[in-house]
What does this fold into?
Amino acid sequence: MVPDTASLTELAGFSGSAPATDLQLARSDSLSPGLVDISPLSEHSLDTDESSVVGAPVPQAAEAPPANPKPHKHTPESEIALEGMVSYGNWQIFAAGTHEALYTGGFEYDRHSWGKFIGAQMDYAAEVLPLVFLKEPAVLNPYGIDRSKRGDFVILHGLAFSPIGLRMEWWHNRAFKPYFTVMGGAIGFTQKALSPDASYYDFSLRESIGFYLRMSQRLDMRFGLFGDFHFSNAYITNYNPGLDVMNSSLAVSYHFGG
It folds into this structure.
């Protein structure tokens, strides 16, 4: 005969142990008839359960990203242009030459560097001209005055380098982009230019205005409508005729970076 719940409670109180819990009662009900287990859960069984929980694998937390991730390197927008220039006249601003002509070919590099001013993008500009040809009268006096026969000219070969320059470009993201460029540097020839008593090397200053036409995402055509190319030796010798030539230029410009 199976004792009822009240009898179990009384028996637990009589034995001096704590009242039976619901878990103990459930275990007692599940025993076969005639057998009653009123003992509390053993400490060994509790330890086993706790150890099984402690031994369970613990999910690993995802690795946190680095505190200071390496920033993405940004290359400023730049251009390199293959250019050619032809002079078509002289004027006497800071120079005395009047019968010379200048032809150049080379490369121009432009790099977006200084933000904007009066609506124009401000770019660093530099130029290398490995092809420089100066057409001048065959006979010149020390002051650069022509003393040769009409049509008697010689060609002097040289090169030029302008490491200091500024380009201002408006409407940068449009197909039609006006620009203004000024660059300073040096120019040299294989023999003394503009005067037999002048120098082989001179200081140069060049200005140009024109526009770019976009041909594709990377290519532009540049039309230099009007420019001035000046060079003189700043009186490093006793004679400094100097030259100012009006000119136009044409270039193909390739964009990279940005």
